[in-house]
Amino acid sequence: MKAFCDGGDLAEAVGKAIRAISTKSNNPILDNIKIEASEGTLTFTATDNELTVTTGIVGDVSDGGTTLVPGKLFSDFTRKLTGERIALESSGNKLVLRYGDSGSEFACADPEDYPVPMSVSDGSGFALTKRDFRDLINKVAFSVRQDDVRPILKGVLLEIGGSTVTAVALDGFRLAKCVKPITSSTGDMSAVVPARCVNEIARLLDDSDEEVNIYISKGRVRADIGHTTIMSVLYEGEFVQYRNIIRTSFDTSVTVAAEQLYDSLERALLLTRDDRSNPVRFDIAERTMRITSASGRGNLDEHLPVVTNGPDITIAFNAKYFTELLRVCGADSVTIKFNSPADPCVVVPCGGEDDFLYLVLPVRIA
């Protein structure tokens, strides 16, 4: 292989591909990035056998070929060469980079040992604007489970029906749901997509009305974004029947400024950091929400102005669950709905938007 490319383009492409390399892999061959040179294009592929990222850049290719470079090393190295014109030349088990009057050499693995990339057909899928898909994922993906106790809860459920897509994520303590319009679909469908996959897709999307197409086929999903393709296996199994969890009637509702509530809970978190449940107590009356927390670090007692409908209530939550949802909700004010200190609350935006809601389980208090 022999090719020339821009150093900035090279660093960007390698930076995208390396996101598919897992830090927990037990297969050394998957620590590499595959580089293929052919007909004016350099293509970079990385995978952990669950997530695959393939991206391409323009290159002056005089001799095609394929090589495997150590992913993290190559990524760290190319970030230092963004202002250079790079020559890449591979021979045997080494890749040589030349830039200006300098050069570097990398030991390479045999590309024949690299797994064959997965493929996803265009037969079934849906499309929506980049803005809506990015917002959809940002509003729910933080609520997925982080451990392997229930692997399917590490994914985001996507339900396509009619003219909308509904995304749902939950971890057993909170649930996030968001609905967005779609521009087209091949029919009703559903899939549980690993959060890592949808987060990588969202990370590459801009805030535009251009469409992004999502294809779902045979236990796999694919998104094409410019010169980059992201593919992943889907989680198999039955997702939680989330509609049975969300209450539709409530005794008490309180409307509060989102930024004020967020700032107060952030201060509370500073004092409860040593307690994994981060307990913060809400005492809600007609015009005031009193927020209190106590720990070995100190105590917090703050009062926020609110508008309340229904009887007073005292309830406690893990403050982290609220700050995470308030960080992404995008609303100036939120309405929190309660039934009892033992029942989960539902949080919705205030101001006309009805595309999302959050459900949070309370913490037991004495």
Structure write-up:
The protein is α+β, with helices and mostly antiparallel strands and 366 residues long. The protein is 17% helix and 45% strand. The protein contains 6 helices and 27 strands. The strands form 4 sheets. It has a 9-stranded antiparallel beta sheet. Strand 2 and strand 3 (41-47) form a beta hairpin. Helix 1 (7-17) packs antiparallel against helix 2 and helix 3 (130-138) crosses helix 4. The mean pLDDT is 94.
Distinctive features:
6 helices; 366 residues; nine-stranded antiparallel beta sheet; alpha+beta; 45% strand; 17% helix
Binned strand content:
35-45%
Proportion of residues in helical segments? 10-25%
What's the alpha carbon Rg, rounded to whole Å? 24 Å
Largest sheet: 9 strands, antiparallel
Classification by helices and strands: alpha+beta
Distance between the termini: 69 Å
Strand order of the largest sheet: 6-2-3-4-18-17-16-10-14
Mean pLDDT: 94
Overall shape: elongated
User: How many strand segments?
Assistant: 27
Total helical segments: 6
Low-confidence stretches: none
